[in-house]
Design brief:
Layout lengths: L29 H10 L5 H18 L22 H17 L5 H13 L8 H21 L6 H17 L4 H20 L8 H23 L4 H7 L9 H7 L3 H21 L6 H20 L4 H13 L15
Helix pairs in contact: 1-4, 1-13, 2-5, 3-5, 4-5, 5-6, 6-7, 6-11, 8-10, 8-12, 10-11, 11-12, 12-13
């Protein structure tokens, strides 16, 4: 994200700047600390170097050399023939991870992936759709520089977003078959967006101010409704009276088109998942706090690097008590 974020205001008191260094925050998980140290270079020069190497490898493949990272084969258009989206997501994510880790030039990125996999072993008790979302994060966080540079397909992020959008139906009580169809439908829509990345239009400031306000409202809702404690990150990420001072707005409105795309599209699926959770008071707190901690981990990548993995893991830790595997039944897709 550091490679695509614009310029978070450096003159806001108590906030980290893009070139700032860690202020000695304790990292709450030793494995997580190791994972981030292995991967945080992807926000800077090493990521750019890896991306260049990756492109060279891909160009060699065209001349009969090494194979580039492939996109998954396009699934059939008829949803009845597509089968389980969760199976497709698993195959897609594992394929990208294997491709990264088979490239010796990307050894540091692979090390970050492996360390996050080890740190997240405790999430094996979550239902499959949340386990797959963790898997998407183990790829996306170490390899974000490759994804945003165009050196790695965006399929991993698209899986993450499709899962969140489909989960909105799941949280509202829809049967598994309908949820599966929703996953596929959202994958199709996101594929159109990814394949036809549009320039931001003249209303981008209004768009970003509105959605940044939605995010601040969600944080306030979490604190007021559930007493959620965000003191770990409050000094860096607000809340902000003027949302234009916050990293959400600045990353959405500034920087590159891919950075703005990442903020806008990722917010849409988390927003839908949160709203879906409001239908069931038993899960609302978990989904709301999951969403906020996830977004705080994105800002941490830029403003407080030592907090990146702890905040990311906070987002999944809150799911453990609410969604243990024994309390939910995964129903196979009937098509």
């Amino acid at each position: 994200l550091a490679a695509v974020a614009a310029t978070p205001a450096s003159d806001v008191p108590g906030r980290r700047t893009l070139d700032g260094h860690s202020a000695g925050h304790d990292v709450v998980d030793a494995k997580a600390e190791k994972a981030f140290k292995s991967s945080k270079a992807n926000g800077g020069a090493k990521a750019a170097k890896s991306a260049k190497v990756y492109k060279v490898k891909s160009s060699k493949a065209a001349a009969g050399g090494e194979e580039p990272v492939p996109s998954p084969p396009s699934p059939p258009c008829d949803s009845r023939d597509r089968g389980s989206f969760l199976d497709f997501a698993e195959t897609t994510l594992q394929g990208q991870i294997d491709a990264v880790c088979s490239n010796s030039e990307l050894a540091e990125v692979c090390a970050g992936i492996r360390d996050l996999e080890a740190a997240g072993e405790k999430y094996a008790s979550l239902p499959r759709w949340y386990r797959l979302n963790w898997k998407a994060m183990t790829l996306a966080y170490p390899a974000i520089g490759l994804m945003t540079s165009g050196s790695l397909p965006l399929d991993g992020l698209r899986v993450h977003m499709s899962l969140g959008l489909g989960n909105s139906l799941r949280l509202q009580g829809y049967p598994e078959d309908d949820v599966n169809k929703a996953y596929w439908s959202h994958w199709d829509v996101l594929s159109v967006q990814d394949g036809n990345l549009q320039d931001r239009l003249s209303g981008i400031e209004q768009y970003c101010k509105y959605t940044a306000s939605e995010y601040e409202t969600l944080k306030s809702f979490a604190v007021e409704s559930f007493g959620t404690d965000y003191s770990l990150v409050q000094a860096f990420f607000g809340p902000f009276t003027d949302v234009k001072e916050g990293p959400f707005y600045q990353t959405c409105v500034g920087g590159t088109d891919i950075g703005s795309w990442l903020v806008r599209n990722d917010w849409e699926h988390h927003r839908r998942e949160v709203i879906g959770s409001l239908m069931d008071g038993n899960v609302t707190e978990a989904i709301v706090t999951y969403a906020v901690w996830h977004w705080e981990s994105l800002w941490a990548m830029v403003l407080a690097p030592d907090l990146t993995v702890p905040t990311l893991m906070n987002s999944f830790d809150v799911l453990l008590d609410t969604f243990p595997l024994g309390r939910l039944r995964e129903i196979a897709c009937t098509h």
